[in-house]
Structures are given as C-alpha cells and as structure tokens.
Amino acid sequence: MLVLSRQRDESIMIGDNVVITIVDVRGDRVRLGIDAPREVSVHRREVYEAIQRENQQASQIEPDEARRLPENSHRTE
Asked: 27: which of 35, 55, 56, 77 lies 20 to 30 Å off by Cα?
C-alpha cells in the first residue's frame, strides 16, 4: 500500500485520468473529491462489497427462479 500525506486542496493522480483531491479535513474525517471518467466506477468500499455480494447471489439463481422474478427487478438506474 502506498501511503501519501496531502493537505487541503492538494491532489494525487491515479493513472492519467483520475484525480483525488483533499477537499476538507475536520478532526478525524477527510473529504475527498474524485474526478474520474464516467466509465470508471467509484464507490465507497462498503458499497462496492455489497454490490459484489448481490452479484454473487444473483449468479446463483436457478433459471426457474429467475423466470418468477418481477419484470423490473433486474433493471438498474
């Protein structure tokens, strides 16, 4: 793991097109601004892990079970 020290309004680059900027620091909380292309998914880790669990569960549904799901249950917005 790379550990960097940054102050407010300073940034780091990830690759050529992702910029992480320190927006604010208050006590033990840090606010980050993330500038990334639309095709790059950006999630908090706990959200990412929940998405992975849901995808894993969905991949284990039997075809007969999938046919009984409501029509709009597979759509994301």
From this structure: 35
